[in-house]
Amino acid sequence: MPSSNANLVSSQASGLEPDRPMVEVKKVWKSFGKLRVLKGVDLAVYPQKTYVLLGPSGGGKSTLLRCINHLERIDHGRIYVDGDLMGYRERGGKLHEMRVKDVAKQRARIGMVFQRFNLFPHMTALQNVMAAPKHVHHDSKHAAEQEGERLLAQVGLANQVEYYPAQLSGGQQQRVAIARALAMHPKLMLFDEPTSALDPELVGEVLDVMKNLALDGMTMIVVTHEIGFAKEVADGVALLDGGVVVESGPPNQCLVNPKEERTKLFLSKVLA
Amino acid sequence: MSTSVDATAQPLPTAFGGQESPDAEESLAIDAIPLRHWGRWISAAIIIFLLLALLWSLWHNPRVDIRYVGQTLLQPFVLRGVVVTIELTIIAMVIGVVGGVVLAVMRLSQNPVLKAAAWGYIWFFRGTPILVQILFWGFFGALYPTIFLGIPFTGIVFGSAATGRLYGAFVAAILALGLNEAAYAAELVRAGIISVDRGQYEAAHSLGMSGGLTMRLVVLPQAMRVIIPPMGNETISMIKMTSLVSVISGTDLMTNIQQAYAQNFKTIPLLLVACIWYLFLTSIMSVGQYYLERHFGRGFGQKEAEAAEKRAERRVIKRAQVHNA
Fold this sequence. Notes:
The structure holds two protein chains of two kinds.
Chain A: H1 5-12, E1 23-32, E2 35-45, E3 50-54, H2 61-68, E4 76-81, E5 84-85, E6 88-91, E7 94-97, H3 100-107, E8 110-113, H4 125-135, H5 141-154, H6 170-182, E9 188-192, H7 200-215, E10 220-223, H8 227-233, E11 236-241, E12 244-249, H9 251-254, H10 261-271
Parallel strand pairs in A: 3-10, 3-11, 8-9, 9-10
Antiparallel strand pairs in A: 1-2, 1-4, 4-5, 6-7, 11-12
Chain B: H1 4-9, H2 38-59, H3 66-72, H4 76-108, H5 112-127, H6 130-138, H7 140-143, E1 146-151, E2 156-162, H8 163-166, H9 169-194, H10 198-206, H11 211-241, H12 253-264, H13 267-296, H14 304-324
Antiparallel strand pairs in B: 1-2
């Protein structure tokens, strides 16, 4: 049952039991033209947890991620992040579309890392990281610069601050992208296949950074094909296929002893 | 302090312990006799011969009157014309670029009326010859003999004046060149904006940037890289296109040259004077274009690695100074 996965994630929590999910996805439907990509997805991610979305291409994983920060509009359902309805305001029992400015404010608290990095090519690594704090949060240049250098050092790029993206390897670019997202002090990080565009020997350095983030208590939703990462780091996993959550639960159950035939088939293909 | 600067101070190790240069083993050294390119020598000789013949014929042609060209080059009437040509170029390009950005944004907007209006403007101004447009603006008084300032359809008029009094050949020339240029610039700007990857918008939006900030900080600087080279060409074309306003006595370089040779019949020397000035102006412009392209090409160049090392070095020095202070 898709709706029961929330409990599985929360029951994993050791120590304090936060009652409100950081992300709550309720019966979300989304079509592109005639193509139905999401068909009633439910999902709940609790604070300081890492949730991994698995599944075949076209299964709706990336779309779901992009719906969460309202880069895509949903056709039906509700998405709440930290209790706020994304993209709409409920007033007098009616939904009002939010102004672009207010959507931007909501997004500023959600970090996103893309498969193709999407660094700004005309800015150095440091300028990439500083851009949003300086121009969106209006931090002073000095403060933004210091924070930028600290974050770049945190992802292991203390010596590359002055490099333009074109001079960095894929793994380094993706780590700059992570630092750039962290610079807005997000309460949630979304990763859209962050290692899929990387050469195999560069995957590790990016996964290590993500692992450390998870250990530091960041709430994360990760779309990936890295089963090893899911097993080691995730608090919960979900398999999306054909626009629905086929199976979800803690990784040592879902990935080791899956119940659904569809999950077994997918795992056998990925691990082969 | 350990930085990337230190790493480059040491000589680069050769790959896998290979040696720097081959052994001086005599028998395998390549010491071949170079291939002779006879074709290149012959074609170069022919070209140089033809060029010399042309120069010789000009030098010995009394109608060229090199001395008169030299005397006239810095005459006040020529310099006044040059100043007007420069003014026309700059003002028309400013109108053109600003108008072009507005038209491009209109064409890319979701509003069908704005879209259609921009399309219609570009269709009209690109579809009619610039010479016709210049004449049209020059004879604007024949279409609207008086210009009113007021509210249309109501009969309320705050003031009016004869078109000819408000509006001389210079203003007509600027309007003709600027409005025409806007139509061409719009297409260049639009192409530049479209060339920026969609992922750039998404990244900017995911960082909480608004539409305007995304445009200003992320999209336009990248679009500039694509826009600048053709816009430089447009400016060079504009320098030459200003000569057309001589048909409405635009007081530019060409107008003054034509008036001079109408009086003294030194047509060829005066046209040479014009050529020298136009070449000078377009050459200056090409130098400026080089620096603009370099500025907006940052992050893409060949020597970027070197430049990054230098920036890092300056940073370390600055840090040390702050530390010591």
